[in-house]
Write a structure and sequence with these properties.
The chain is α/β, with parallel strands linked by helices and 444 residues long. The chain contains 15 helices and 13 strands. The chain folds into three domains: 28 residues, no CATH class; 155 residues, 3-Layer(aba) Sandwich (Rossmann fold), CATH 3.40.50.720; 230 residues, 3-Layer(aba) Sandwich (Rossmann fold), CATH 3.40.50. 36% of the residues lie in helices and 18% in strands.
Length: 444
């Protein structure tokens, strides 16, 4: 699906109307293609703290060129500021001193990262200063423009090396539609990140299980995980069997058709993954439905069905896989929440409850999992799919423009975020919920 408005504003008359009427003028976002370098340009590194000396080496390990000092006339594809050394409010001015001189030297679709210390792990003035970073980065994300993104990555002391996959994701076009987010690395005392020998295929030798994989976001998740080297086992309802098999055959994957709300579904899934694949490394709970109605017009069957598919089934399947030991050590459990679960949405009390429940699901398990297994979630905003194409024009346009990038995202944007979570080097990333919404103006 395409964004017709974005096509229109690139025409001569569209450009004229944008200029004279102040209409949104979304930048065409750069997205990653297999074989591309993670960053096509130079990343400027600044700040002082625990990661200051390590950052050039970490970036070099990812094949990313970096510089420590600004050169006159130089353009930068990314900025990384180590703010872990800020221990009092008066030191926050160092943010302005680093960023202001270089903001006009950023290329289109630039990436900005601020690295801090999790405020909950420090006290006093340092906690104040570190918490202030959230307001700074969220605001900068709304003013950077030209397809740029801004993130805050809190890295716990001792987990500096575990930030490698996160640096690679947020500095690359893989994070095209993710901005204004706060990510924590190492706050749940996870096992240190596994080494990745080939960053172009970090999931080589891994098995990934994806529900709702026959089309839309689920299909794209399957394709991206396959691109990264995984053997994908796709699941969908029997009615979608033809589409599911077509996708799985194209990526040399396996498939399973069943209703995830069936009483024996968790056991059947566990048996299939154990017997045919010897276990599973990545579990993506993507399958979901909406049955929208205002609560005054809702009935218990429809309300309950949404909860059953979107929330209860993932809980039961995960519990069964964990109980039987089907999820391999250093495995990944990934849920698909929604911006509706954070900000709410008109007529979506059941859907929003289920997606907020997914976030609760992440919170409930993050400290309970063993053997290096992690759990995280994505929360998509307006993603352009066949389903959103059926939304009334006016509603669709508002949904696509009400974010810092003035456009909707693509299924691949959700898939890339899930692939980052799935990376074996992301062991320090646990208990996070990252919005894939172009920094939507709703919610936190």
């Amino acid at each position: 699906m395409t964004d017709k408005y974005q096509g229109f504003v690139s025409t001569p008359i569209g450009k004229l109307l944008v200029k004279n009427l102040g209409l949104p003028n979304p930048t065409k976002l750069e997205r990653y293609s297999a074989g591309d370098p993670l960053v096509q340009g130079t990343v400027l590194v600044g700040g002082r703290g625990r990661l200051a000396d390590e950052l050039p080496g970490l970036l070099d390990a990812l094949g990313i060129a970096s510089a420590r000092t600004q050169s006159e006339g130089e353009k930068y594809k990314g900025l990384v500021f180590d703010a872990t050394g800020l221990t009092s409010a008066d030191q926050l001015v160092e943010l302005q001193e680093f960023f202001t001189p270089v903001m006009r030297s950023l290329e289109t679709c630039a990436r900005v990262l601020v690295i801090g210390t999790p405020p909950e792990l420090v006290k006093g003035g340092e906690r104040v200063a570190q918490r202030a970073l959230e307001g700074f980065t969220r605001s900068l994300g709304k003013e950077i423009g030209k397809g740029g993104t801004v993130q805050l990555v809190y890295v716990a002391d001792g987990y500096e090396g575990s930030a490698l996959s996160t640096l690679g994701f947020f500095l690359s076009p893989k994070s095209a539609y993710v901005s204004g987010q706060v990510v924590r690395v190492g706050t749940h005392k996870e096992k240190k990140a596994a080494d990745v020998s080939d960053w172009t295929a970090p999931l080589a030798g891994k098995v990934a299980f994806v529900t709702g994989a026959s089309r839309g976001i689920g299909e794209e998740i399957a394709r991206v995980l396959h691109r990264d080297g995984a053997t994908v086992v796709g699941l969908d309802v029997p009615q979608a069997a033809d589409d599911l098999q077509k996708v799985m055959k194209e990526i040399d994957g396996d498939w399973l058709t069943l209703d995830i709300t069936a009483s024996d579904a968790p056991q059947r899934i566990a048996h299939h993954l154990r017997e045919k694949h010897g276990g599973v490394d990545v579990v993506v709970h993507n399958a979901g439905v909406t049955m929208d109605k205002k609560l005054a017009n809702q009935n218990p069957d429809r309300f309950g069905k949404v909860l059953e598919i979107n929330l209860e089934a993932p809980e039961k399947i995960t519990a069964e896989l964990l109980e039987q030991g089907v999820i391999n050590p250093n495995g990944r459990i990934i849920g698909v929440a929604s911006i509706a679960g954070i900000a709410g949405n008109l007529g979506q009390t059941s859907y929003a409850a289920s997606k907020a429940g997914v976030i609760g699901f992440v919170d409930s398990l993050a400290d309970e999992l063993k053997d290096g297994i992690t759990i995280n979630a994505v929360a998509p905003g307006f993603i352009i799919t066949q389903m959103t194409a059926a939304v009334p024009f006016a509603t669709r346009e508002v949904g696509q423009r009400l974010n810092a990038m003035s456009q909707g995202g693509l299924p691949v944007d959700v898939a890339e975020t899930i692939a980052w979570y799935a990376n074996p080097a992301s062991s320090g990333v646990n208990g996070n919920v990252v919005r894939v919404c172009g920094q939507m103006m709703l919610g936190a």
